Amino acid sequence: MDLYFRYLKWILTSLLLSLMSMTGLWAEEAAINATTASSGWQNNELKAASKRGEKIYQAKCIACHKSDGAGMPPIFPPLKGNKFGTNVVSDHIHIVLNGRPGTAMRDFKDDCSDEDIADVITYELNAWGNNTGTLVIASEVQAARK
């Protein structure tokens, strides 16, 4: 009889652990799917903004910062791998809007819309291996103008 109860306890414990692990896996899978769904919109928007930003970059920035983002140091700094440009987005916005006094970087506040500036910065933050995953939005640029 003792053997019977041990065997029954082992079966019930195994079943319970199996159910718990399956439920845990299902919960984990559901969490991953929910995260993927919510980040899917952002990934699509990030790609779209980067694509628009690349066109703006080619029209306004490529002459100085080059097609590969390497720039021409020391006059035109690289955007590729530039920690200053990728760490503090508000500083990046400020520089594109207002230029950088004492350097060749001119301002673009009168030439570009908030969306254009947001898109080009999004492109710069995610091109050439920068891959920050940062999506800059027009309202951030609008706030920086004030």
From TrEMBL:
Originating gene: cyoA_2
Q: EC number(s)?
A: 1.9.3.1
SUPFAM superfamilies reported in the protein's UniProt record: Cytochrome c (SSF46626)
Query: What start and end residues bound the annotated signal peptide?
Result: 1-27
- Which protein is depicted? Cytochrome c oxidase subunit II
Q: Where is the Cytochrome c domain?
A: 48-128
Recorded source organism is: Legionella beliardensis
**Superkingdom of the source?**
Bacteria
Cite the Pfam families for this sequence: Cytochrome_CBB3
Q: Which is one GO molecular function term here?
A: metal ion binding
Provide the alphabetized UniProt keywords.
Heme, Iron, Metal-binding, Oxidoreductase, Signal
* Database matches in InterPro entries: Cyt_c-like_dom, Cyt_c-like_dom_sf, Cytochrome_c-type_DH
